């Protein structure tokens, strides 16, 4: 609900970068009814995060064939996931060089969640308040029906928020000690994105990010 999917999409459009969304991977497995998808669906319905083992397996599998610049959207969420990711990347002489933390007020996030609709096969996300579909309830590209995530409700939000805090605080400390963490503050994606773009250009330069200007 912080807008990480929106930010990932904007970064992808601006820079030559591949985006791997842990949420999209999960939803696709749930929609297909895979073994992992069924386990994940039960955990999500309880307001719990999907287990580290499942997330590590799904994401690292996606990373195997990614050689160009890439961005992980929504992963890692726990210290165990972070350590496992570092270990897998080290095997191929790679490492994370930037971690972005989005700081958005809780009341803003809750409203976004209540207004959110998703096209599961593609992972496209719509929001009735600022990014509505052209036709209510239908995906702009395929015309297929949009759905609500089972965990997009106030009760589950409170459970997930408490869990998120307990998991995220040590994770942020982990990356802060490595000097690769940066936090951006704002109430809207339009406020936050220019901050992210400036920081990416400052750190890596346009040439390294696949753009000419």
Instruction: Give the N-to-C terminal Cα separation.
Output: 31 Å
What share of the residues does DSSP label as strand, in percent? 5-15%
CATH architecture term: 3-Layer(aba) Sandwich
Radius of gyration, in angstroms, nearest whole number = 17 Å
- The helix count comes to 8
Unreliable parts: none
Highest CATH level, the class: Alpha Beta
Q: How is the biggest beta sheet arranged? A: 2 strands, parallel
Number of beta strands: 6
CATH superfamily: P-loop containing nucleotide triphosphate hydrolases
What pattern of helices and strands is seen along the backbone?
HEHHHEHEHEEHEH
* Average pLDDT taken over every residue: 86
What topology, given as strand order, has the largest sheet?
1-2
Number of structurally distinct domains: 1
The CATH topology corresponds to Rossmann fold
What's the helical proportion of residues? 40-55%
Structure write-up:
The chain has 213 residues and is an alpha/beta fold. It has a single domain, classed as Rossmann fold. The protein is 52% helix and 12% strand. It is built from eight helices and six strands; from the N terminus they run αβαααβαβαββαβα. The strands form three sheets. A two-stranded parallel ribbon has the order 1-2. Strand 4 and strand 5 form a beta hairpin. Helix 1 packs parallel to helix 8, helix 2 crosses helix 3 and helix 4 packs parallel to helix 5. The longest helix is centred in the C-terminal third of the chain and has 24 residues. It is globular and about 40 Å long. The model has no long low-confidence stretch (mean pLDDT 86).
